[in-house]
Amino acid sequence: MFFVQHLINGLSLGSLYALIAIGYTMVYGILRLINFAHGDLFMLGAYLGLYLLTWTGMPWWLVFIIAALMTGVFGILLEKAAYAPLRHEPRIMVLISAIGASFFLENLAILIFGGKPQAFTVPAFLDKNIKLDSLNFNVVQIVIPVVTIVLLIILAFLINKTKMGMAMRALATDYDAASLMGIDVNKVISFTFFIGTVLAGFGGVLYASRYPQLMPLMGMMPGNKCFIAAVIGGIGNLTGAVIGGLILGMSEILIVGLFPTLNDYRDGFAFILLILILTFKPTGIFGSTVKEKV
Question: What is the pTM for the complete model shown?
């Protein structure tokens, strides 16, 4: 039962990491860009969920959907403001812009929401406690993997069965050839940012329901971990992002469960895992070596 308890906890956390890591890997797969502001958009989704729950009488599931969609709109605005003007510039400039966008969103959140932590209003249904023999967990720990699976199925259909998904795959394969074939590159990139950020928004409200304390800088560590999850799986590969998130979440929970004295160092495990992956398999589990264009 000890293992099953930690398996449930690890699956819940790993599903969250996978959900957010997909946004990193989608953007990188098309633009070869690491969106370092992705964790801050995750934070924004959590705050939007809090205020929608507080100010409206809508059902929690509808609030979560609206908060995620609103976060997706902010993702498009971020792409238009910080990345689109630099699309044909050296990649180091885009990287600097991504870091600057992250700092801007964090400080803007401090200005708007305040620097003090705020308690997230966890819906009563998600906060229900379930006890089965010696197992003890909340409903939200079951809802998180279920929502993640549903969203992944929708994403897989979108990418593999729609014209927009075909255009996204074309850009990921050969950006220049796709643009020459008449694909609306700007539209596809904006849509990619929207989808990736919507997933981050869902991750934000689900994370806040599991760990109900919001801060403007709350996206930094989960954002870093989800980037590491994407690297572990092979950044640019959607399946790899999911597997990497699950590996990271499961290993983090199991190590702390087996060695409780290491709880204060749990955030360091992700970076140790990153070092090991970069040392022994730099392309990640599902990644492949790609020659950089000069």
Answer: 0.91
